[in-house]
Amino acid sequence: MEHARDRPPRPDAAPVELPEGSWWDWDVFSWCPGELRLAAGHDLCYRHGLELVFADPLHVQCPASFQDPVFRAATPGERQRVERQCGEPPGVLVAFEADGGGAEPVTGLIAAGSLEVRLGLVLRYDAGTESGGRTAPPPG
To answer: Taking the domains of the chain in order of start, what are their residue ranges?
Structure first.
């Protein structure tokens, strides 16, 4: 298995670039061993159209749901803290400020082996039943 230290780190000055769209509502769609998926859309009740898929997450500081994130480059202090905690430089380090529902913005910081931005409709219910439930995320 390839580790983050085997790949060159992502440049500090390269925040996440999102495709055009209405991406103001965000949540943690799934988090299982080896993968963290953040979902975004204009209304997450029924569907979402964008996913940030983090493979091999090393460090996650992120609210369960948030709005209007502003992605930015990680500060040198954030990078040093993550490297100290993880013991290696991450393949990708994503930082953002967002509305978490409180009086002050929340800071998100996610270090992982890699990041994939996926665009595509994902229904958040089973269209064949009224009971609800999530469908499978978009294919790889």
So the answer is: 22-123
Which amino acid is residue 134, in one-letter code? R
DSSP for 63-124, please give it. -SEEEEEEEEPPPHHHHHHHHHHHSS--SEEEEEEEE-SSSSPEEEEEEEEEEEEEEEEEES
Give the mean pLDDT of 129-135: 49
pLDDT tens digits along 44-86: 999 999 999 999 999 999 999 999 999 999 999 999 999 999 9
Quote the CA–CA distance of 10 and 122 in Å, as a whole number: 28
- C-alpha 24/C-alpha 43 separation (Å) is 8
Q: Which residue has the tokens 């992982």?
A: 112
Question: Six-digit token pair at 136?
Answer: 């499978």
Tokens read off for 44: 């997450």
Classify strands 47-61 and 106-123 as parallel, antiparallel or unpaired.
antiparallel
**Residues 83-103: tens digit of each pLDDT:** 999 999 999 999 999 999 999
Bridge-based pairing of strands 65-72 and 47-61 is unpaired
Element housing 79 (H / E): helix 76-86
SS3 for 132?
coil
For 82, the 3-state DSSP assignment is helix
